[in-house]
Specification:
8 strands, 136 residues, single chain, 50s Ribosomal Protein L5, Chain: A, alpha+beta, 32% helix, globular, six-stranded antiparallel sheet
């Protein structure tokens, strides 16, 4: 199946932070991102989440990811926030509650094809006993 998605990534860069380190944090999770600095934020857009999905599998946080994605779904989009420090270390740590002092990486995914549920199943498949369930 071919997926058509637009992934918008935004991260604030504070005066105490090095812009290149925040850009590296974004690229560690989304290698195809080319962050550009604009009005105090780094912004990037990508159209695939393969590496991000691999990290969700590697760190065995598929159920957590599914919960975050579906809890933050609005129509054909879902969004979530990630901790910058974890991303800099190529780890996925979802930010919940109040934003951290330095701000979080905000990710907004708009799914054009096929639909949000199918895309989430692809990125973070349902699990049983901690293992991804094969839909077939």
């Amino acid at each position: 199946m071919i997926y058509s998605v637009d992934v918008q990534i935004t991260a604030p860069v504070n005066d105490t932070e090095v812009t290149d380190r925040v850009a590296d944090a974004i690229r560690n999770l989304f290698p195809n991102a080319d962050p550009e600095f604009e009005h105090g934020d780094l912004r990037a857009e990508v159209h695939d989440v393969e590496h991000f999905s691999e990290l969700l599998h590697r760190f065995e946080i598929l159920d957590t990811a599914r919960g975050v994605f579906f809890d933050n779904r609005r129509g054909d989009t879902f969004s979530f926030d990630l901790k910058k420090q974890a991303a800099f270390e190529e780890r996925v740590n979802f930010a919940v509650g109040d934003p951290s002092e330095l701000g979080d990486i905000h990710v907004r995914v708009r799914v054009e094809e096929p639909d949000v549920e199918s895309f989430v199943d692809y990125v973070a498949p349902p699990t049983e006993g901690g293992e991804p369930v094969d839909p077939e």
